[in-house]
Amino acid sequence: MHKEGYYSSGEFAKKANVTVRTIRYYDKQNILKPSYVTDTGVRFYTDSDFTRLQQILLLKYLGFSLDDIKGMTIGDSDYNILKNSLHLQLKLIQDKMAQMQLVKNAIEDTIKTIDKDNTIDWSSMLSLIHLTNMESSLKTQYQNAGNISARINLHAMYSVNKQGWFKWIYEQGNIASHTEVLELGCGDGRLWVDNIDSVMSQNIKPHITVSDISEGMVNDARRNITEVYEKCVKNPENIVNSNNIFEYDVADCQNMSYNDASYDCVIANHVLFYCEDIDKACQEIVRVLKPGGVFVCATYGSRHMQEISQLVKEFDKRIVLAADNLYDKFGLDTGDKQLKKYFTSVNIRRYDDCLKVDKAEPLVEYILSCHGNQNQYLLDRYSDFKAFIQKKLRKTLTITKDAGLFYCVKE
């Protein structure tokens, strides 16, 4: 019997302009499962299944393997998740276009060299190989951008403290008082996006180096900061170009190329616990800070978001949202001891906040963005998990936030 609002495999394939064989293959590979299967095995799809199919076809077009795609897509017609997904796909396309332009230029230069010298420049050929073998890095950029977006969105939508985390960091770190600023682990540039008005109102325009170990994150930060800067500038003729304020760099905080005593202020928002060698990172930070310079170092404690871990454990006790407890490596409860080895003054400042969540989609998106094994157990059971979360949220869920920063001063 044909259910209303459902498409048979043939109807679904025809509507999407793909073959039935393709739909069946994606089903077999557990990449695109039907929304409904009858007792006799007849498969039916819904409009929401087109969301995932669109993602699959785009990523396949960009050169990703089906194994990659399985971990990069999720089918959901909720406008929030769909909008975020489309934004990420747009950035992925932009990065791919930039990459293809580099490949085009490299090919043209190589042809010119051959025509001019009648020889092959093997170093140019090696560069071409590197340029045309970047899909894995693009995949990482896509996933990182999606994960950061999901985590920030949950906090932005449901935080009780309306000042906002990034405005609080800017205020508590007294960042506006500094003119030479380095941010480590910039992510998508949200610190500067949220505080662009404050940056623009400084009498002496600062020089801000926005850095991250991920080139994809640096590209996202550049796009986001440039966009909000241009909206903020009301009279472009009377104001300096954004590039005169913001500089972008791919950098590892454990091994930086910046000169000694270069910065008044260094910022690391949820960064140090990712470092393999925290002591080395601290040594580098002290080195690039001027005497009297400030290190603003944000992290979280053991109670942070604990209700979410309890929630997923109730659904499937095998799920671990973080392979390591990062707060054990560098957290609010232990970080001051590590920092006092390098800074004469270390003060802790806690952010007073919690989340009041009443909708499933942003919470599910957040959970899927975590660094643990959750996707292994949730992607194939997405509908069941979403229904489980929706049932739990019949009553608003309060989620603990245990976050803050260390304000450190170099001697």
Largest sheet: 7 strands, mixed
Structural class: alpha/beta
Q: Give the overall form.
A: globular
Question: Beta-strand level of the residues, as a percent range?
Answer: 15-25%
Order of helices and strands: EHHEEHHHHHHEHHEHEEHEHHHEEHHHEE
Number of helices: 18
Unreliable segments of 5+ consecutive residues: none
Compute the average pLDDT.
83
What separation lies between the terminal Cα atoms?
A: 77 Å
- Helix percentage: 40-55%
Radius of gyration, taken over Cα atoms and rounded to an integer in Å:
24 Å
Widest sheet, order of strands:
6-5-4-7-8-12-9
**Count of individual beta strands:** 12
Write the layout of secondary structure elements.
Elements: E1 7-8, H1 9-16, H2 20-28, E2 36-37, E3 43-45, H3 47-61, H4 66-72, H5 79-117, H6 122-131, H7 135-158, H8 165-172, E4 180-184, H9 190-194, H10 196-201, E5 207-212, H11 215-232, E6 246-250, E7 263-269, H12 278-288, E8 289-300, H13 306-315, H14 326-329, H15 335-339, E9 345-351, E10 354-357, H16 360-368, H17 374-378, H18 382-392, E11 397-400, E12 403-409
Parallel strand pairs: 4-5, 4-7, 5-6, 7-8
Antiparallel strand pairs: 1-3, 2-3, 8-12, 9-12, 10-11
What does this 3D model show about the protein?
- The chain has 411 residues and is of the alpha/beta class.
- It is globular and about 75 Å long.
- It has helices at 9-16, 20-28, 47-61, 66-72, 79-117, 122-131, 135-158, 165-172, 190-194, 196-201, 215-232, 278-288, 306-315, 326-329, 335-339, 360-368, 374-378, 382-392, and strands at 7-8, 36-37, 43-45, 180-184, 207-212, 246-250, 263-269, 289-300, 345-351, 354-357, 397-400, 403-409.
- The N and C termini lie far apart (77 Å).
